[in-house]
Amino acid sequence: MLLIFGLGYSARWIARAAEARGLAVAGTTRDGRDGSIAFGDADRVRAALRAATHVLSSVPPEDGDPVLDAYGDGLAGKWLGYLSSTGVYGDASGAWVDEGAPVRGRRANRNLADAAWLARGARVFRLPGIYGPGRSPLERVAEGRAHRVGLPDQVFSRVHVTDLAAGVVAGLHAPAGAYNLADDLPCDQDQVVAYAAALLGRAAPPIVPLESLSPMARAFYAENRRVANGRAKSVLGWRPRFPDYRFGLRAVSAMTRPTSASSPPAADSVDQRYPSNTVEISIASTGTSTLE
């Protein structure tokens, strides 16, 4: 049985993928909703832990790691997984980062949690921006909440939630260590927003000054990196079904708007896809983070 701490958006997709492989799944939430186990119900959580062969945490750190602090004594002898963040790499000025890159993210608690799970022998899945049905630029554009910032050299990586889930399931039989689960085409966020608008038949949202954004949003744009996925491909045998945002957003659009236009917007003229077979990837011995 797989016990998932923190049945949020991404974890529920992972649960479905694991169940499709024949693995029974139980999970916790903060309040025990929808048939889950309340995180604070220690008796039920520990009973589930005793029955579990695999344990995955998607719970973000606070002052410490909530799962390790409350239930760390019940994890011995089990397959361990942790959903971390590529934010642990911090700003790389647009350079490629792999699992051997220094851990220097701006969120110290993320870094410490990432390192703590690695020290436990977990498979630590470092995730970039996550999108999928119900949580994508398509919804933000449709609701009038999207914007562009006019920073074409500010590059980010992202992953479709079904590819994330597939990567975690591929890790069920993989050695411990860190794995970046990102698609093949990092790019600036404005390209993604403009493409989402085109899929909806709308004009691209306006460019707004960076200074007009919230402090949290400005902090997001303070980091610039391209995330390499070569280790996940070579060790997990994982390949993203949606290798870039165009494939992913087309799939989301087809799922949520089946009558959308049949012909996609024009592709970008330059494909920045990363040649993963040309860079040697190493395992990080320490790290940290959570989801971007």
Order of helices and strands: EHEEHEHEEHEEHEEHEEHHEHH
Structural class: alpha/beta
Question: What percentage of the residues does DSSP assign to strands (E)?
Answer: 15-25%
The coarse silhouette is globular
Secondary structure: helix percent: 25-40%
User: How many helices?
Assistant: 10
Report on the architecture of this protein.
With 292 residues, this protein is of the alpha/beta class. It is 32% helix and 15% strand. The chain contains ten helices and 13 strands. It has helices at residues 9-20, 42-51, 66-71, 108-119, 137-142, 161-170, 189-199, 215-220, 230-236, 245-256, and strands at 2-5, 25-29, 37-38, 54-57, 79-85, 96-97, 123-127, 129-131, 155-156, 158-160, 177-180, 187-188, 226-227. A seven-stranded parallel beta sheet has the order 3-2-1-4-5-7-11, sandwiched between helices. Strand 4, helix 3 and strand 5 (79-85) form a beta-alpha-beta unit.
Give keywords.
292 residues, alpha/beta, seven-stranded parallel β-sheet, two-stranded parallel sheet, 10 helices, 15% strand, disordered C terminus
What topology does this entry show?
Blueprint: E1 2-5, H1 9-20, E2 25-29, E3 37-38, H2 42-51, E4 54-57, H3 66-71, E5 79-85, E6 96-97, H4 108-119, E7 123-127, E8 129-131, H5 137-142, E9 155-156, E10 158-160, H6 161-170, E11 177-180, E12 187-188, H7 189-199, H8 215-220, E13 226-227, H9 230-236, H10 245-256
Parallel strand pairs: 1-2, 1-4, 2-3, 4-5, 5-7, 6-13, 7-11, 8-10
Antiparallel strand pairs: 9-12
Helix pairs in contact: 1-6, 7-10
